[in-house]
């Protein structure tokens, strides 16, 4: 038995110690927004936030996350109350087939938090923060999330829009 805090709610699960966090979310809690794409950590469709940091849930075991705050796409917003990143993806058509979209949105949310904390990327001009979200910067930071439909220009536009909304309101995208 393990206890996981997912989207602010405690869940007690009886899982095999070999169960990935992704499989615990989808198969034991019916949180199917997090997708199983490659199951090898290469596509990012399974991205969730653990204590605010982006991870591939297919590469970690559920038992490793007792005491962590796990956020899935379902925890970011609801159909009647979307968060700024979800709104921006809708506004900019940041999806085509939609399979990668939950992972893209969760990853972009975590990425904007990293930028807000001043964490540089491989293409950041400075290691001292103050990073401008250029197309190159966004593409580098989102490189772990693949879109087979190639909706990248719209995804970048959505992230840029959401980053502006978050800066104005002071809330997390």
From TrEMBL:
Entry GO MF terms: 2 iron, 2 sulfur cluster binding; metal ion binding; oxidoreductase activity, acting on the aldehyde or oxo group of donors
Annotated InterPro entries: 2Fe-2S-bd (IPR002888), 2Fe-2S-bd_dom_sf (IPR036884), 2Fe-2S_ferredoxin-like_sf (IPR036010), 2Fe-2S_ferredoxin-type (IPR001041), 2Fe2S_fd_BS (IPR006058), Aldehyde_Oxdr_Iron-Sulfur (IPR052914), Beta-grasp_dom_sf (IPR012675)
Coiled-coil blocks: none
GO CC terms of this entry: periplasmic space
PROSITE patterns named in the record: 2FE2S_FER_1 (PS00197), 2FE2S_FER_2 (PS51085)
Keyword vocabulary terms for this entry: 2Fe-2S, Iron, Iron-sulfur, Metal-binding, Oxidoreductase
PANTHER family: ALDEHYDE OXIDOREDUCTASE IRON-SULFUR-BINDING SUBUNIT PAOA, OXIDOREDUCTASE, IRON-SULPHUR BINDING SUBUNIT-RELATED-RELATED
Designated name of the protein: Xanthine dehydrogenase YagT iron-sulfur-binding subunit
Organism: Aurantimonas endophytica
2Fe-2S ferredoxin-type domain segment(s): 1-76
């Amino acid at each position: 038995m393990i206890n996981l805090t997912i989207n602010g709610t405690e869940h007690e699960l009886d899982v095999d110690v070999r169960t990935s966090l992704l499989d615990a979310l989808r198969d034991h809690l019916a949180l199917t927004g997090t997708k199983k794409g490659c199951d090898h950590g290469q596509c990012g469709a399974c991205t969730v936030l653990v204590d605010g940091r982006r991870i591939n849930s297919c590469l970690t075991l559920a038992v490793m996350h007792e005491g962590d705050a796990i956020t899935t796409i379902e925890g970011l917003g609801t159909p009647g109350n979307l968060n700024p990143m979800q709104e921006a993806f809708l506004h900019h058509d940041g999806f085509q087939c939609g399979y990668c979209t939950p992972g893209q949105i969760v990853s972009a949310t975590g990425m904007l938090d990293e930028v807000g904390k001043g964490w540089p990327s491989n293409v950041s001009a400075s290691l001292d923060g103050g990073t401008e979200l250029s197309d190159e910067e966004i593409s580098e930071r989102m490189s772990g999330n693949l879109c087979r439909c190639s909706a990248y220009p719209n995804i970048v536009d959505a992230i840029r829009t959401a980053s502006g909304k978050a800066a104005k309101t002071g809330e997390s995208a």
